[in-house]
Amino acid sequence: LISGSRSSKTFKPKKNIPEGSHQYELLKHAEATLGSGNLRQAVMLPEGEDLNEWIAVNTVDFFNQINMLYGTITEFCTESSCPVMSAGPRYEYHWADGTNIKKPIKCSAPKYIDYLMTWVQDQLDDETLFPSKIGVPFPKNFMSVAKTILKRLFRVYAHIYHQHFDSVMRLQEEAHLNTSFKHFIFFVQEFNLIDRRELAPLQELIEKLGSKDR
């Protein structure tokens, strides 16, 4: 029996975009276009919008989605079930954030994902990196910051698909996972945000998702 108690809990606090803000309007626009079912169109930069702002809003949204998806399977992702952070036998990730942990360390998947999500959250909360106020400029290095965040968030999808897809199916979450991942992939492809090499662990799935939409 799978208890649903864990799945209602989120893994990390949700990052909220303040209502009434321009970013909130953008998020609503994104949600509306997603509803149309055309994901390729939904990820495109809305006319007249700032690219950094569009990437910021979507990065926050993907963080929240992945947070929620991973939250549903945390009880199956343990020190003993996942002693290393992997995406199948050929890909293993070691954690380093460049500040607290400079030399990459080998750690279990739950530990790695906890480091990763905490690290992402700290950046999303940093007003100098992700300004929430209108008219506050994005930093010059914003694009490289966003790319690193998205590259790392991809690893959580890759781990879930490779190591926990059976649990996702038992929980009947696969449609939710596939839609979220497809949206993520179309988004990073549209703006060329993740190196192809980084996407290798899920290459077949990415091709399959893409071929349905051509």
Automatic annotation (TrEMBL):
Any GO molecular function: kinase activity
Pfam annotation, one family: Mob1_phocein
Residues annotated to bind Zn(2+): 77, 82, 159, 164
Keyword vocabulary terms for this entry: Kinase, Metal-binding, Transferase, Zinc
Source organism of this protein record: Bucorvus abyssinicus (Northern ground-hornbill)
Protein name: MOB1A kinase
Gene3D superfamilies per UniProt: MOB kinase activator (1.20.140.30)
InterPro entries the record matches: MOB_kinase_act_fam, MOB_kinase_act_sf
